Prior knowledge:
Elements: H1 2-8, H2 20-34, H3 50-65, H4 75-97, H5 102-123, H6 128-155, H7 177-196, H8 202-219, H9 222-238, H10 242-261, H11 269-281, H12 290-304, H13 317-320, H14 330-338, H15 340-352, H16 354-362, H17 367-383, H18 393-423, H19 430-434, H20 436-439
Amino acid sequence: MADVSRATGFQSSPYQQETPWQRIELACAVTAVFLSAVNFLRLDLFYFTLSDLFFCISLVLRACSTGLPLRLWGRASSVVWLCGLLMLCSGLMVSSLLSTAPIRGIVIVGQYLFAYLAIAIALCGRDLRAMVLFAKAYVLSIFLMCLHGVYLIQFDGQKNTAFVSGNGRLTGFVERENECSAVIALAMPILLLLASTGRIGKVYAAIVAVAMAYGILLTGSNTGLASFAYAILGFMLLSGQWKRVVVGAACLAPLAIWIGHAGRDYLPVVFQKRVLGALETGDLSQAGSFDHRVELIHEALDRLQANMWVGLGADQFQVTSVVEQPVHNLYLLLSTEGGMISAIGFVVMIAATFQPIMRTFRAPGGSAYAACAFISVSMFALMANAFPHLYGRFWTVPVILTLALAKSYCDAVGNKNLARGAMQPVRAPRSKRAFGSALNPIP
């Protein structure tokens, strides 16, 4: 296919060799990825989104046509990933069964299994052409969400609606301010990968990046802004584009100086109130709900010793908390609700991803794919310090997508090398070539 050949020079199977059922399955998977951030299209009874429905259809069709992949992104790393997921879920389940709300344990464990296992099986094990199609669909979805938010806030002036909070912050299709900013930041490495590998034009990439940056400002999220900057700088440095970092910084310096002196009024009001004040003064107490989150962290640390091995049970921290809210730190939340076994399991899952990332770094031309995966995974691990349970599909799809992209690129490079080896003639040993005329005389 064209995308694979452009990256590796190896021609893979054309579209005509796909069966109609495989095309339908691919269309369902692309739709699921496109809708993964559309969190408001879900059931009221339990957390099941429209994206989940298309993922389930894709899984059934894939199982019936080509079979489900057993190795997500490598034999060893997949085993470690599954062991970490088993530790996470078992800790939550045991703690929930011993708590007053065992049903919540079944529900939350089911959500984690679907988010980190079912979606991984649905996305992984495909060729590079399909993975690039997934990446384009995901970036397009986030781009449309940002444009929609700009229209609602800057032109329509909406507040306290389904997509804009009461204080004017963009909640987007995710329906949550900070989560919306995090989703935008997680899409940035994928956009940079598509632009740096020539999958989309530089002009289109610049337009999408500007829309995403303004969407981050509209969310008024300090976490989102820091993650967005980390995604850009980290990708350029790791992919060997550090010269562009210097050029970009030189170009943005005059803009930053202008904003500091006369451009404040042109920034979104919510950004000025929640983020800009903390940046100018260095006082973190002005950064949104920072003090409130610190109080919840202290409460979780106080409970940690009593719930070291057997936790409170899934979703029970907010029930027993003084302020009736979960601690916005996944590591502490898993430690208190599922015991240390759950928190260690999540860390093991994160650690399992670095082996395929390093393998992609060593592949010829794989630095951009490896940088995209590393930035996405590391940013996700850092974001876990500022959010509670992370089983929403808008969390897992971009992370799994970048890992699957790296794995598919390595497979494409391996297929290219295999094809080259098959086309090279087999040369006889030197001894046979020297005495060939004596052994096989011409009649």
